[in-house]
Automatic annotation (TrEMBL):
It is found in: Nucleus. PROSITE patterns: WD_REPEATS_2 (PS50082), WD_REPEATS_REGION (PS50294). It comes from the Eukaryota. SMART domains: WD40. WD repeats lie at residues 136-171. This is COMPASS component SWD2. InterPro entries: Swd2/WDR82 (IPR037867), WD40/YVTN_repeat-like_dom_sf (IPR015943), WD40_repeat_dom_sf (IPR036322), WD40_rpt (IPR001680). Its main location: nucleus. Residues 281-304 are annotated as: Disordered. Keywords: Nucleus, Repeat, WD repeat. Belongs to the WD repeat SWD2 family.
Length: 380
């Protein structure tokens, strides 16, 4: 059955009639397995390029209620969109510092984001008036990940300076500091009691007790040992994402290669190699990009907040590719070779270099140069 037409929102057509996105939203109590194959690109937000230079989206995030979607972009802006109404809400300009890895705090009107120029501070911003609340200073090289605690005002940052820093938004001084070998990725487990740090250079995922983080990690998952039989190329490089599933059973290690690693969150064993059946996206892995201010934008040198993620029920992993969005079913039977092919390929001609799933609704977004909202097709 043909998909419903996609609504396109550009500066030139901002006054055009808009599809009613809100009436199609379904909360996550709807069983995702019954609709996962029916997702279609529903709304396209295409920004007008300035001086004919393309703008690329670097990160995607949703606020806790799932009402707002936020991007950070290569033109030093942060864009916020209203999910229910399917419209652009506001633009925040950060020309002096640049912007990447923008994350909502637990207040939808405030965000934190990393810098791309000037210095390596993390900035705490009130979005209602575009005013800075606080700077989080301490990193001496590019920040590679920012992870908000699932239930409190704490967050973790990792950096190319070899440090992991723990922060509370109420204080400009870091509350905890770890020195590790290229700790480029971080993630909280759904309880908020455990955090993980991914070190591609060490080929390891380290798990810490949040209450006793000054002690050595209570568990170290050896990605090289577990995953060498399925992928020789991205064991010590090429990592793009680290994420716990909301059911706490799995850890996802995304890569820019031929697939992603799905690990058991309790013992670190490889559960499945999520094979990409379409060409991977062009973005660099975390810590491997070298795009610099003032040079022409090259997407192969840009990093992103990740081209794969879990669905809120923890069952599926969705991932972008050069075209189409892939969906893997983590409950599917895996053979002895541990290779799992996508259960579904959702058609789209645009690259899905950045991917995020809404925490409250069966709704996700993909992005590269444009932002795309995806909804299940009621007629499928």
């Amino acid at each position: 059955m043909p998909a419903a037409p996609m609504d396109i929102d550009t500066p030139a057509s901002s006054g055009a009639a808009s599809l009613s996105v809100s009436r199609n939203l379904r909360d996550t109590s709807t069983e995702l397995s019954s609709i996962i194959s029916s997702f279609r690109p529903t709304k396209l937000f295409a920004r007008e390029a300035k001086d004919k230079a393309p703008t690329y989206i670097l990160s995607l995030d949703f606020d806790d209620p799932g009402e707002l979607c936020m991007t950070s972009e290569s033109d030093d802006t942060i864009q916020i969109y209203n999910v229910r109404e399917g419209r652009h809400d506001k633009a925040l300009i950060s020309k002096k510092y640049g912007a990447k890895l923008a994350r909502f705090t637990h207040w939808s009107s405030s965000i934190v984001y990393a810098s791309t120029k000037q210095n390596d501070a993390i900035r705490y911003l009130a979005t209602h008036d575009n005013s800075f609340i606080r700077y989080f200073e301490g990193h001496e090289a590019s920040v590679t990940s920012i992870s908000m605690h699932p239930g409190s005002d704490n967050f973790i940052s990792t950096s190319q300076d070899g440090t992991v820093r723990l922060w509370n938004v109420a204080s400009k001084q870091w509350t905890g500091l770890l020195y590790l070998n290229k700790p480029y990725l971080s993630a909280w487990d759904p309880s908020g009691n455990i955090f993980a740090v991914g070190s591609p250079a060490a080929g390891s995922v380290l798990l810490y007790d949040h209450r006793n983080y000054t002690k050595p990690p209570f568990s170290i998952f050896d990605v090289v040992e577990q995953c060498s039989t399925v992928d020789q190329q991205n064991l010590l490089q090429g990592w793009t994402k680290l994420e716990f599933s909301n059911d706490g059973k799995h850890i996802l290690v995304g890569t820019r290669g031929a697939g992603h690693f799905l690990l058991d969150a309790f013992d670190g064993k490889l559960k499945a190699f999520l094979r990409k059946t379409d060409e991977p996206t062009r973005r660099s892995a975390v810590g491997e990009g070298n795009g610099s201010p003032g040079t022409p934008v090259d997407p192969t040198r840009l990093e992103s907040s990740g081209d794969c993620c879990f669905t809120p029920d923890g069952r599926y992993v969705i991932g972008g590719s050069k075209q189409n969005v892939l969906a893997w079913d983590t409950l599917a039977t895996v053979g002895e070779n541990k290779v799992l092919n996508p259960a579904f390929s959702l058609e789209d001609k645009r690259e899905g270099a950045v991917v995020a799933f809404n925490p409250r609704f069966n709704f996700f977004a993909t992005a590269d140069q444009a932002l795309v909202f995806w909804l299940p097709d009621a007629n499928a």
